[in-house]
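Explain this record to help learners:
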Amino acid sequence: MKIGIAGLGAIGAAVARRLGAGGVPGASLVAVASGDRNKARATLGAELAHVDVVGLGELAAAADVVVECAPARVFAEVVRPALAAGKKVVTLSVGALLAHDDLIELARTSGGQIIVPTGALLGLDAVSAAAEGTIHSIRMVTRKPPKGLAGAPYLVENGIEIDGIAAPLRVFEGTAREAAKGFPANLNVAVALSLAGLGPDRTRLEIWADPTVTRNTHRIVVDSDAARIDMTIENIPSENPRTGRITALSVIAALRKMTAPLRVGT
């Protein structure tokens, strides 16, 4: 299985290193795409010197599976050509999918597939199972250190200052769709949760800038006719404070399932 990666930030670089070290049996990294080709080549280093550095739209021709971990603004540039070619796309900018939902139909007609890994969340298997019955409500509360939310468009547009706050501050309450627009680099997890369950307009979300926490914390409460689910995860941030270390590992786990003789979980 030939893998291409779009974006070599904290997540993309970690996935590339694991693939280069043979971390996914039956899979090999063949190409990466990045806005800065020289920086991408330096990130790959000598150990991955054989990997091609290509344009965003060229990944589809090089790879069987495209891993999208690029900025949301180039989401369609990465995903559309891959789906049109009938390829699989593992996407982390799932919030951008709400603005490009025509890509789901493209995947259906072309034989491609959009795969959303669990990422920094947990329990999507349980939520998907509950959705086969009736889910009454889903609510998620996210707490992040202020630096993990700094610069979010919603904060800038509403003049919300979080630098130097001494106590937890609720900066947002609304739907997953609204959160995806206002916090595009922070709340892809909320959109993934919504797609597994009630959809982006019925999934409710609170976001707190919290100087008392050092980890990105998500609590999800699901009320359904099959179960009441109450889950909390505390993610250790990567070198990029907006995302957790577990996100890259989630991508590796998703890729491993594609070739594994034993597959655990829905």
